[in-house]
Amino acid sequence: MDLSSTKTTDLLAKIQRQVECANTPTHCTVFIDPPGCGKGTQAPVIKNKCCLCHLATGDLLWTAVREGTEMGEKGKKGMNEGKLVMNDIVVEIIHDAMRKPECKNGFILYGFMRT
Question: What pTM was computed for the model?
Answer without folding.
Answer: 0.70
